[in-house]
Each structure stands twice: as structure tokens, then as C-alpha cells.
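TICKET: design request
STATUS: open
ATTACHED STRUCTURE:
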């Protein structure tokens, strides 16, 4: 009996503590995009926020594509405790993605290859909470529904050729 109790106590002491997953934070006008330090709210398209262990505030991204690039980057130093993306099915419009309609990236239905650019003008990965909303978006804007793990690195880490307006002569 003493031996069993001792083993249970040791197992309990050795058990790793599971970190509590933080809730998403509303996007405010003061939220700056991690890479460019521009105000996130000033740009259309879906947004992302990543919570890092040890930080009280998330880091925001003006595009979901940028958040995926950050997650796949070898330069990331802190462990990620949660990643949230805009539910574009609950958004007012592409230009107004919402400030509190966050869903977990892991639960999102993702659309890649649509004809709409993200907030920084690059191709975007559009997230939805519901498959039906994603399918409706694909019917209207093209692209395809794709699992997160199937998004190729080149789609988020590769260079982007932006279509800039020609300068007046």
C-alpha cells in the first residue's frame, strides 16, 4: 500500500502542468501588425493573433498568410499557446473582418487561392468557422478549401509579386 501511494505521489509530482489556453483578444485600433508595425485595423481581409508563452498580449498580423509565415519561421523564439484568425463567415465584409469574431486556427476551414488579396496586398488564406460559408466563398471568389497542414510553405513563405498601379508620367 505504501509503495503504491509513493508511486502515485511521484507520478503526480512528475506530471507536466498543462498551460491554460488564452482567450482571443479584441482587435483595437492600437493593434500593430507584427512584421510591418502598421495598424491592423486599417487594412481589409482576415487577421490573425498569436499568443506566445510568457507574453500577456498577443501579436497581431494584418494577414493570416503572415501569421502562418511566422508560425513556420525558424526565427520564432517563444512557444505558441494559441493562434486565432478572423471568422470571415461572421465578417461584415472582406474590408471589415470584425474585431471579436475570432476562431482557433486549428478549427478553421481555410480557403487558399481566392481572387481577393489580404490586407497587405498579398495572396491570402481566408478562414471560416463553417464549411458551408467557406464553400459559398469559393463559389463567389474561387480558390479551394484546404487543410492547414496541406498549405505549402511556398504559399506563405515565398516571395509575392504585387500588382502596383503605374506611376503617372
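STATUS: resolved
RESOLUTION: sequence designed for all positions
ATTACHED SEQUENCE:
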Amino acid at each position: 500500500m505504501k509503495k503504491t501511494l509513493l508511486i502515485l505521489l511521484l507520478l503526480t509530482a512528475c506530471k507536466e502542468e498543462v498551460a491554460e489556453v488564452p482567450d482571443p483578444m479584441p482587435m483595437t485600433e492600437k493593434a500593430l501588425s507584427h512584421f510591418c508595425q502598421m495598424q491592423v485595423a486599417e487594412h481589409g481581409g482576415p487577421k490573425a493573433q498569436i499568443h506566445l508563452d510568457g507574453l500577456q498580449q498577443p501579436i497581431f498580423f494584418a494577414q493570416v498568410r503572415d501569421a502562418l509565415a511566422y508560425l513556420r519561421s525558424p526565427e520564432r523564439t517563444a512557444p505558441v499557446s494559441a493562434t486565432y484568425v478572423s471568422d470571415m463567415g461572421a465578417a461584415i465584409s472582406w474590408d471589415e473582418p470584425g474585431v471579436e469574431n475570432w476562431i482557433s486556427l486549428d478549427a478553421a476551414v481555410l480557403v487558399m487561392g481566392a481572387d481577393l488579396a489580404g490586407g497587405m496586398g498579398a495572396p491570402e488564406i481566408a478562414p471560416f468557422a463553417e464549411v458551408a460559408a467557406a464553400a459559398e466563398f469559393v463559389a463567389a471568389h474561387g480558390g479551394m478549401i484546404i487543410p492547414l497542414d496541406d498549405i505549402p510553405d511556398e504559399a506563405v513563405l515565398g516571395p509575392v509579386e504585387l500588382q502596383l498601379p503605374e506611376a503617372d508620367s
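CLOSING REMARK: The mean pLDDT is 81. The helical segments are 2-14, 64-72, 131-141, 153-157.
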